[in-house]
Amino acid sequence: MEQFYRDNRLNPIHEGTHGIQALDLLGRKVVADGGAAFYRGKLAACRYFFRWELPRTEPQLKLLDGLDGTCFEMKPEWF
Fold first, then answer.
1. Which residues 6+ apart lie within 8 Å of 29 measured at CB?
2. CB 42 within 8 A of CB 34
3. pLDDT for 16
4. Cα 28 to Cα 7, 45, 47, distances in angstroms
5. Number of Cβ within a 10 Å radius of residue 79
6. Structural domain boundaries in the chain
7. Nearest-CA neighbor of 29 among 44, 39, 16?
8. 10-residue averages of pLDDT along the chain (79 residues)
9. CA 27 – CA 24 distance, rounded (Å)
10. Does the predicted TM-score (pTM) go above 0.70?
11. Which of 16, 23, 43, 48 matches a 20 to 30 Å C-alpha distance to 7?
12. Sign of CA dihedral 22, 24, 25, 31
C-alpha cells in the first residue's frame, strides 16, 4: 500500500518535469536559429540510425523472411 501511495505522489512530479522539458523544447530549442538547431539534432539522430542501427537489422529481417508464412496466408473460410 505504501508503494502505491509513494508512486502516486511521484507521478505529478514526473509529469511536471516532462511538461517543463516540453516547454523548454518548444520555447527555446525548436525556435533557436530559426529551428536550425532542432533540425541539426534530428539529422544527427538519423545519421546515427542509418550508420549504426540499420545494418544490425539485416539478420532479423532474414529470419523473418525465412519464417513460415501460414499467418499471412490464412483464409476467412478456415474459420
1. 37, 38, 41
2. no
3. 62
4. 31, 19, 24
5. 5
6. 1-30, 33-79
7. 39
8. 67 65 71 74 84 84 77 78
9. 5
10. no
11. 23
12. positive
Which residue in this structure is represented by grid cell 499471412?
Answer: 72
φ, ψ of residue 71 to 5 degrees: the values are -60, -35
Residue 38 makes CB contacts below 8 A (sequence gap 6+) with 29, 30, 32
- Contact (Cβ atoms closer than 8 angstroms) between residue 24 and residue 18: no
End-to-end CA distance of the chain: 46
Rounded CA gap, 34 and 70, in Å?
51
Q: Which three cell numbers stand for residue 55?
A: 545494418
All three cell numbers of 56, joined, read 544490425
